[in-house]
Amino acid sequence: MAKYQGQAADFLPLTPAVFHILLALSDSERHGYGISKEVAATTAGTVRLGPGTLYGTLTRLLAAKLVDEIERSDTRSAAIDPRRRYYRLTPLGRAVARAEARRLADLVSVARAKSMLPGRR
Amino acid sequence: MTVRGTRTARTCARLIARAYPRRTPPAPDPRDFLEEAFDDAWRERGCRGVVRLAATVAGDLLGAWTGRGAFPISADTRPHSMGHRRSHMDRWLGDLRTSWRTLRHTPAFTVVAILTLALGIGATTAVYAVVDGAILRPFPYRDMDRLLVVMEVGRNGQLMSVSWPNFVDWTAQNDVFDEIGVYRAVPVTISGDGPPDRLNGFLVSSSIFTSMGIQPLAGRGFGAAEDAAGTARVAVISERLWRSRFGARQDVIGLSLSLNNQPFSVIGVMPASMRYPSRTTDVWLPVGLYVNTFPPRGAHPGLTAIGRMKTGMTVEQARAGMVAVATRLAGQYPDTNLGNSVVVTPYYELIVSSIRPALFMLLGAVGLLLLMACSNLASLMLARAETRERDLAVRAALGASRAQIVRQLLIEASLLAVAGGALGVGLAWLGVRSFVASRPSTIPRIDLIGVDWRILAFATLASALTILLFALFPAWRASKPDLQHTLRETRTGAGRRGTRLRRVLVAAQVGVAAVLLVGAGLLVKSLTQLMKVDLGFENTRVLTMRLTLPDASYGSADAWKAFHESLLQRLTGAPGLEAVGLNSAVPLGGFGSESPIMKDDDPLPSADRPPTLCMFQATGGQYFEVLGIPTMIGRRFTDQDRAGSAQVAIIDDTTATKFFGATNPIGRRIAFEFSGEHGMSSFTPLWREVVGVVRHVKHYGLLQEPPYAQVYVPFGQLPTWMQSRRPSMALFVRTAGDGETSAGTVRRQVSEIDPRLPVYSIQTMETYVDGHTEQPRLNALLVSGFAAVALLLAATGLYGVLSYIVSQRTREIGVRLALGASRLDIVRQIVLQGFAVVVIGLALGLAGAAGVARLLRTVLIGVSPADAATFAGVAALLAIVGGVASFIPARRASAADPLRALRMD
């Protein structure tokens, strides 16, 4: 992972849409709608990614090799389409997500130190 | 969830998925997402869920189309940042999206701006299309600038047609032209296979075809053989006639036609581009057929000469050369040619010179309108930029460069210009189509006028120019906000510099409106003067039509007279016809037979005593009654005035005064025919007794008054010259009721006498007279239209700027009201501010109008370009309109609640 750290820094800071997508893929491969549902669920519905935004961003991520695409048959949606496209993080993508999370954590620490947020300094 | 519901959801998804921008694999496919999303929405919330999802997806769809490339990974705006490597295209598209959004959020401004632009660009494009088609577009003739028209001019300066023997000598003696020929309109009736029809025919010399340089579609034009007397009866027909009458048959060459009841053979077909001598020429006949009918030197049988000047010569040199030839001939033939000369005019000038002043005036007027539209828009853009000052200041603070802000504003302006331009072109297309459909007779090449790529290029240029004029300066100004000042400023002080500029713009608009209004006023007044001209006859309930009797069937004066007498007999008393008359000329028509005239106590005219000229007409039936021409003294013609009885004449009151002064002319004698050798030295006048005096009738158009005596003779006593060249008569009918029915009655009666004769040019005299005021009416209508729009633009501009001032000073006004100022004071102050702008604009505008009006001199009739009443009227109108436009916001200001105003920031 260390070898990706340098590259990862180039992508920071991430846009909110990108970070949410990377987070959604961090614990599981998902297909497009699955990503959108996961983001909506983890943000209590405040962030909704429409298909245009989602797929526009996914295209960028694919091109930047932060995300990979795989084909897998989905038993649940077999009635719709036996072959669905799934996405997963690449090692670089994982490194970028981690780097952004670290950056945000550092910012939160600073905010806590200045009593902007409750919690230990 | 029902199966049907699932299927519906999936169908929705599939349809919407198709609307997304296509992505090449391995780019993701939105269909996956959509099918499942719609499925879920249906399952969880049913129909409402699907609808809500569809609405969300619709917005996302729009974003997908307009936001391509705008999904950066990084939020870093530094150029080297990987996530923000946006291409030029992405930047432009992003600006486009922002501009579109901004314009959408201010629909009132956007709609007004687009409509203003559409009006300005549309009107300018339409007028340009007409000017281009009529004048600017190149003519199809070879070396058009070398085609010169030659006419004779008499000692008294009056233009005359060409005498044949003179023309023959010109051809032999000139060193000016490569080739020169003559032409004249001839009445042609076609019969045979198909109904009889009247054709526009011309006798022409062979050089007419070669001078124009247009190749025939089939066969050939005329050659030297066709120029000589005794030539075979051949004809060249037009493409239009070939298609309409002969079905574009391939074997048309050699086809036999019956023209004027004589057999002719077709030797050629000319394409539609051959529009000489007239756009509507149907058939060309060789001059050789008519050579033996032309009168001797001294008579002018309606011929016009046209030739192609030698290369390397100038028009001035050509003129000098032909004048030298004319002078030589005057010396050789003093009896007929003394004092006569020639007038040489470039053919192009003849076509356009009468219409060019009017067309360029219209182009100028519409250009002013476009300027007004641009200045109105500039004012609007300035106001808008001020309301966004804060917005733009924030952008600048966040790092946007000046160029980026200017680009953003220019893109906004361009969107408006593109939309306005497109709508304007549509309006122009409609306008040009309806203009061409009205078939205005004064515009040359009317059938070539339309909106094509040339006009579109012009419209694009106009749109681009308007962007520069109305957007660049406001964009430049708005892009340089004083950040600290703007971000801290309260509303009361904002926008002072902008307001001054807008006031200047409005004053300019008032000035331009003043110029257009003065122009319109002068043109309208000119038109009313024209319509007040005393024609000398009545044109209500009168129908006119023409008949041409072919020589083949009516080869003698007796046969010709017999036909007309028979026709008059049949029509007199026919149902629906109150009175019927005949004349060899139509009033205002300008066509007439001219001859020297003398009265009984005059010495014989001689070479050094130029005679007075007269214009004589052959009259029959109740011509004077039909046209309401009153008899001042004496009597009208009766059936007794026929061949063999005493030769009589009727003169008009102008001639009576000129020749006889206060003495009674009845019983006196005049002569305009002279027997013996045609020449003034040895002849005998053929006297006619004056039996009546009628009121003067305008014969050479509405305005011209050449100093010809007007003489009427009964058509039973045709002058000698008319007996050999029998004129085509015009029939005049006073109708009791419906014109169509009366026309039908006439056609029926003519057909009963001779079924091969067409009756043509049927129209009411009202329509005929209206045709003579067509161009002045068009000028007045169009410029008045422009002036009305300009007035509206100026009024709204003034209203807009004053409203803005009032809204900016609401707090100040509140303070004043609270401190005891009366509402009247407030109103007065605002109105005076408005008036100041109007007065300055008016002063500049009227000064400009005085200059512009002088340019209108050539199109004004009976009105001085410095007409005080018009200028005063325009000043009063603008003052009133300016007053109203100022009063409305002033009243609004005075009605403000002081407490609320004080609380505003």
Q: Report the biggest beta sheet of chain A as strand number plus sense, adding barrel if it closes.
A: 3 strands, antiparallel
Helix content of chain A: 55-70%
Class of chain A, according to the CATH hierarchy? Answer: Mainly Alpha
Count of the separate structural domains of chain A: 1
Q: Could you state the order of secondary-structure elements of chain A as H and E?
A: HHEHHEEH
E-strand count of chain B: 24
Uncertain spans of chain A: 77-82
**How many helical stretches of chain B?**
28
Annotated CATH homologous superfamily of chain A? Winged helix-like DNA-binding domain superfamily/Winged helix DNA-binding domain
State the share of residues found in helices of chain B, binned by percent: 40-55%
Largest interface: A-B, 35 and 35 residues
Task: Measure the end-to-end span of chain B.
Answer: 57 Å
Write down the oligomeric state.
heterodimer
| SS-derived structural category of chain A | alpha+beta
CATH architecture of chain A: Orthogonal Bundle
How many DSSP-defined strands of chain A? 3
Strand content of chain A: 5-15%
Strand content of chain B: 15-25%
Strand arrangement within the widest β-sheet of chain B reads 3-4-9-6-8-7
The largest sheet of chain B is:
6 strands, mixed, barrel
Output the CATH topology of chain A: Arc Repressor Mutant, subunit A
